[in-house]
Write a structure and sequence with these properties.
Helix content is 44%, strand content 6%. It is mainly α. The protein has a two-stranded parallel ribbon. β1, α2 and β2 form a beta-alpha-beta unit. α1 crosses α2. The radius of gyration is 17 Å and the shape is globular. The relative contact order is 0.16.
């Protein structure tokens, strides 16, 4: 896939998810900061594309929330053990961001009650399926 046009790939992926599960709520994340400056420039470009895709999907009535993993809320380069992967503190920041995204989805009314799945003997969804 071309990174310069990753927005098309992500949009197509989201369209496929919503086609298969029109009641889905998606929490899309930006990428983490990178210690390598050249890679960080690429990350910032990709994150910009993710933000544009999420905004377009939401404007089209899709249940989607974008969470931003970049600093200051997300891990900083000092919180990366190898320039890529977060420390425990970095993972704690990520967890806080994910939780904030779930709360935003809830405030927006995106977290729908589960529905019965046709074909189940008792009409109850298997394993908590929500789509």
């Amino acid at each position: 896939h071309s990174l310069t046009n990753i927005s098309k790939t992500v949009s197509a992926l989201l369209d496929d998810v919503y086609k298969g599960s029109p009641r889905a709520t998606i929490i899309l994340s930006t990428l983490l900061v990178r210690s390598d400056e050249e890679k960080q420039e690429c990350v910032l470009d990709l994150n910009s594309q993710f933000k544009t895709v999420a905004a377009a999907q939401r404007a089209n009535g899709r249940r989607i929330v974008l969470v931003d993993m970049q600093p200051p809320a997300g891990p900083t380069t000092a919180e990366l053990v190898d320039g890529t992967h977060p420390t425990e503190e970095g993972y704690a920041k990520m967890a806080d961001i994910w939780f904030a995204g779930i709360k935003e989805a809830d405030r927006a009314g995106f977290l729908l009650k589960k529905e019965a799945i046709p074909g189940n003997a008792d009409g109850v969804p298997d394993r908590g399926v929500y789509g």
